[in-house]
Amino acid sequence: MSRDTAVYKKLKFATRSPKMMVLHLLITMLITTQRIAAFGTPRLQISKSRHKVVSFASGLTKLHSANRGSQPIHYMYTQLDDNVGNLPCRRDLQHVLATIENAAYSAGEVTLATAGKIAIKATKANIRDLVTESDFQCQALIKEIIMSEFPGDFFLGEEDVDLRDVGGEEMTTSESLTKALGIATQKDDGDDCLLFVVDPIDGTVSKVLSDDAFADLTNHRRYFHMSLRFIKTNFQAGLPLYAISIGVISLAGNHPEVVAGVIYNPTLAEMTSAVRGRGCYLNNQRIKHHTQEQHEPRKSILNQSLINVGFPIAKESTLLASSRAVAALATKVRGLRMIASASQTMAWVAQCKLNAYFSWDLNAWDVCAGMVIVEESGGLVSNFDGTRAGISSRDMIITCCAQRGEEGLLRDELITVMAENNCMGY
C-alpha cells in the first residue's frame, strides 16, 4: 500500500468535522493532481549504447562482418530476401540498407529527446531556431554515419539547401538536386555512384512566411483560418507524425533510379525499408499484400478509400489548390486526412493504412525514400498526368497496392476529380 493511499484511508474513517472534511478534500485533490501529472509525463530512456553514435558509426563495417548478434538488441535491421531484380546497380545494397537504417535509428534518438519540448522553451528562444537546430543536428549525425561508410559517394540533405523566400523555393530545390546529380555523374572511377538524399526530420517547418504571403493567406478566411504567423509543426507539437527519411539514388543506368530507402518513425518504432527488386519491409517483416483478381473489376473505388491530401504551406497557390481538393473530395471518399509529413504518409500508403496520397510542390528529400518503398510494396507513384514519377517530379499521386485488374483505377479517379475542380495547377 502506498503512503498516499494509507493517508487517504486514515482520513476516510476519521471524524467528519468540517475542518477534517476540508482537509480531506484538499489532500484528495493533491493526490489526484500528482497521479494525473505522473501519468501524463513522458518517460524517455535513451540507451547509452545507442547514444554513442560516433563510435558505432566508425565500427559499422566490422560490425556487419561479425556475428549479427553483436548488434544492440533494440536495433532491428532488415535482412533482405535473396531474390534480386534486374538492377544495373552493382553495389552491396544490403550494406547500404544497414547503414542508412543505423543512421535513421541514431537520428531518432535526437528527435525523441527534443520532440514536443520546443514549445516549453519558446519563451527563451525563437521557435524557428529550435526546430532548425534539431534538423541540423540530425542531418549532421546522419551524414557522418553514411559518409564514414561511403566516403566516395555523395550526400544531399534538406538543410544543405538555402530556402530564402517563398518565391524562390521551387527554383532553389530543383537546382540543388540537379547540381547534386551532376556532380555525382562526373565521378568516373569504375564504381557505381550513389547519391544519398535525406530529410532529417520530415514533419518540421524551419521557416516562416513572408509578410506579403502571410497577409495574402489570412485574407482567404473562407478556405482556412491562420491564427499564428509561425506554423506549429508535428515535431514541435510532439505529435508522432514525423519521420526520418533517407533515400539512395543510383546513377549506374541511363537515368537516376532510387534503389533503396528507409522511413523511420522513432515514436512509433516503425522502420519501413525497401530495396529495388528485393521488396518492402516493416521492422524486418516483408510487406506482402494479398491481392486477388476481381470477377468483375469495379468501376470505382474512390468512395471506399482513405485519402491523405497534402498541405504545402510555402505558397498561397498550393494552399488554395489543396483547399479546393478537400472540398471536391469530402463527399466522394470514405475519409480525408492531412498528416503533414510526406515521407510518413508514403510509408503508410505502402502499408495500405492509407489508400492514396497526393500533394503539390514536393521536394526530392520528401519523396526519395518513399518512392522505392511504395513501388516495392506494389503501389504506384505517379505524376498528375498519370505517368510514372521520377526523382525530379514535384506534383505526385501515390496509391497503394490494388487488387488485380484494378491497378491505376484509384489514381485515375483522383486525377479526374482534381482536374474537374481546378486542383492541378497552382
List the helices and strands and how they pair.
Layout: H1 3-12, H2 18-40, H3 48-51, H4 53-58, H5 60-65, H6 93-114, H7 127-149, E1 154-157, H8 169-185, E2 194-202, H9 211-219, H10 234-237, E3 243-250, E4 257-265, E5 270-275, E6 280-282, E7 285-286, E8 306-309, H11 316-329, E9 335-337, H12 342-350, E10 356-359, H13 364-376, E11 380-383, E12 396-399, H14 409-420
Parallel strand pairs: 1-2, 8-9, 8-10
Antiparallel strand pairs: 2-3, 3-4, 4-5, 5-6, 6-7, 10-12, 11-12
Helix pairs in contact: 1-2, 6-7, 12-13
Summarize the main sheet: 7 strands, mixed
Number of helices: 14
Alpha-carbon Rg, integer: 25 Å
Number of strands: 12
Rough shape?
globular
Binned, the helix content reads 40-55%
The neighbouring-strand order within the major sheet is 1-2-3-4-5-6-7
Q: For the residues shown, what is the average pLDDT?
A: 76
What percentage of the residues does DSSP assign to strands (E)? Answer: 5-15%
Oligomer: single chain
Cα-to-Cα separation, first versus last residue: 65 Å
| H/E element sequence | HHHHHHHEHEHHEEEEEEHEHEHEEH
